[in-house]
Amino acid sequence: EEFVRFDSDVGEFRAVTELGRSWAEYFNSQKDYLEQKRAET
Questions:
Q1: Residue 8: which of 36, 19, 21, 26 has the closest Cα?
Q2: Distance CA 18, CA 35 (A)
Q3: 22: containing domain
Q4: Across the strands, what pairs with 14?
Q5: C-beta of residue 1 within 8 angstroms of C-beta of residue 11
Q6: What is the secondary structure of 1-41 as a DSSP string?
Q7: Is residue 41 pLDDT above 90, yes or no?
Q8: Per-residue pLDDT tens digits for 10-25
Q9: The CATH number of the domain where 25 resides is what?
Q10: How far apart are CA 38 and CA 19, in angstroms?
Q11: Count of domains in the chain?
């Protein structure tokens, strides 16, 4: 089941379910990782 996904239109992670909210917040706080994902899209 998908909990979180990267939204390339917005450039950050979005929670798909309530369980993914904390993961999305964590991933979005990791600036290096977030920049890497933005560069991949």
A1: 36
A2: 24
A3: 4-40
A4: 5
A5: no
A6: ---EEEETTTTEEEESSGGGHHHHHHHHH-HHHHHHHHHH-
A7: no
A8: 999 999 999 999 999 9
A9: 3.10.320.10
A10: 23
A11: 1
